[in-house]
## 1
Amino acid sequence: MILWANIFVDVPPSLSLGVDPVEEDIMLRPPRSSAGAAGVLNRLTLLVIGLHAFQIAVLILILFWYTLEVQDYSVGYARSSAWIALATVQVRARTSLLHSWQH
């Protein structure tokens, strides 16, 4: 199950990197200066990442509980539904992120 989730989540974004346009002089460029750079992970970015992670965790736990208790399926079925939902959420998040970078 973990291998399936890894293949399902990691392969499509990796394939999209293969069609990225080639930049011939990329290794000849000097590094960018970090003076005055805000950085990638500032407080707002960490807050957004934390809120998204919390939201996904709560939704997956609610799905697991609903499948197990309300629909009265087995633990294995509830785990499988949680794994599938987690993989789907990750693929959706990555594709929307890739889409936002293109525009």
## 2
Amino acid sequence: MAITFDCECGESLEAEVRHCGRKVRCPTCSERAVVPFPPITFDCACGQSLTADNAHAGRRVTCRIYSLSEVTPTLLRREHA
């Protein structure tokens, strides 16, 4: 699976999910950009689909419909140092 994101120069970059958190070089401006983690999408107990930034993994988020509190799952971890 690939992630598409933008460099500061505006160039659209693409990288594999396994490279999340790592730096890649932009072919247009040669600057290094960090590959972002994709958002986490999961279901609330009420059945609504919730989306949270990967920075919120393991934290509680609140369903906007029924105000239920759910823990955001941890889906991605960087396994390579």
## 3
Amino acid sequence: MPEDAKAPDEPREPQSQIARLFDIRLMVGAILVVYGAILFVKGLFDSQAAIDKGAGLRLNLWTGVAILIVGTLMLAWMRLRPLRPPSTDESPGDEGPREPVA
């Protein structure tokens, strides 16, 4: 077994967990789900005047459903394809920092 391979029961690297916490997909997905839920609930209790204003459609309800779907897709995308921390190995063309040319 290679030396750098980790056993499945070992804890994950803290940097990987921190990177996953600050994944932009989490923030955007969570905000969209919250806003979508608010609009959905508001759409359930729309007044007749609000429904008439939307040409007979419950716009808050359907907009809330659409935003909920997009937010859920963002969260699913984050869950199915998590961020991978950059490898510590240098890439073949990377020699390190370059000095400026005068």
## 4
Amino acid sequence: MTDTVSAPTGAALIAALLEAKVEFVTAVPDIWTSAGFLWPLSKEPALRYPHAYTYSELAAFTDDLPRLMQLDGPVCATLKLVPGQTPLNIDYRWMHGPQTRAGLKRAIQSLILQMPNP
């Protein structure tokens, strides 16, 4: 005996999101969900579809970052990473340590201060 499981329809997913009182939905479209779910989702006035971007090149992400920071949120930016060719000796204690986090916070604050006022 074979059990069959049917996938939920786009309309059923949207109804479930509305019932759960979800306000924001972030998704990256693919061939399987675009027509039946994401396109109808973008037309549903009770659900807001934020800005969602995917980057495969660091330079493109870096160039686009000031624009992304000016958008009304929420904004989702995904940077695709691939493993390097050689093993790295990474000091995770340093990488995730309080001094490194504080340095990153200072760098981000500096970038925000350099941004033009809207």
